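Hello forum,

I keep getting stuck at the same step: I have a sequence, I want structure tokens, and every attempt I make locally crashes halfway through. Rather than fight my setup again tonight, could one of you with a working pipeline run this one for me? It's a single chain of 402 residues.
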Amino acid sequence: MLTLLTTNNSALLRQIANASFERAGVTPIVAESAEQALDLARKHHPRIAVLDADRPDLDGFDLCRRMKEDPELRRTRIMLVFEGVLDRPRLLRLQRASCDDLFSLPAPFGELYQHVARLCGLPARASRRIALELRAELESGATPIHGRVVNLSREGARVELDQPFTARELRMRLSRSDHERAAFVRARVVRADPFGIGVALGLAFSELSPEVRAIVDDLALWDVVDTDLGQQVLLQGDFTERTDFGSLLSNLASGTGPVEIDLSAVRYMNSSGVRNWITFLRRLEGQRKGSPIGFVRCSVGFISQAGMAPEVLGGAQVVSLWAPYHCDACNQSEERLLQVAALLQPIDAEPAEAAPVGANVVFPAGRGVRVEPPRFSCGSCPGELVFDELPERYFAFLSATG
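Reply #2:
Ran it on my machine without issues. Output:
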């Protein structure tokens, strides 16, 4: 069980209500004031504290510093939460607070879980919502067992079950719903890990026919969830000459409202994959005229392509992105999730004081803003994590979309 300390912020509590926290065994405790937060932290020793940065009745910067200086709380990771733009005075206070991460509100639902997962070693994404019917061909006959697919490729899958499972070979039906075509595959269990009262299985597929392989590729590529506010799309894997977005486009054709596309699991895009993606995006924009399209949790690979080929973004807005960070003191490298809106500052804004040594500042042309990636406390040593790319190259997409 993982304890999460947070402050009484309704927007934060809505994020923590995401089912991913419950599945990961996260128990939240809520503080009403800075002193109560400090008392609760000393009593429960939470793995992570998610704190409002500068509420009138709670100074999160000072609370973060006090917790970092407390030997009893040295293992607690601390995330500071902001609303609106991270202006220069708050940025400078952030550097001095030595927090482990920052989070900006408003944010897409589920975004906080991604931050917490990265800091605390939880599963990086919520389970994919692919409907799965798992049939184990035991000697006593076929027994249907329902599970959740959390990773899928043409080579195999990881499946979470809410009950024990001991067979080593099985037959499985994969589909998004009962109304869509399914892939029937045979698989062997190569790994079994405890998962709550059940088990998480690592499965290796037997050789797939071309027809079944095409269905599995399509299932692994995307997932769509309809919400009251629009549609959420999760994309994963590599975009190559074999990537076909046709079924995704058809699925989105009947939808209305905003489209939010999660690109955190996009690993690689070659030139043919980039062309296929641009074609898909143009057709989607034609279908959904007037409906905003937002990209959330963009992977480093996707943002790198957007810097070289602005058409990758089309008319969509980048809401948040993963960024590379590095600690020179211990040679630790990791990625941090940043909300774009919190990073943009007017060029003509007067700094509250001199920029900290080593700060990354870039002035993308045509937007009248500067981007200053924050620095964080390293979780592995007393050093700092600093942005590990050329800002003018990594954030070049801001110039192109200005």
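Residues 351-366 have pLDDT under 50 and may be disordered. If your local run keeps crashing, start a new thread with the error log.
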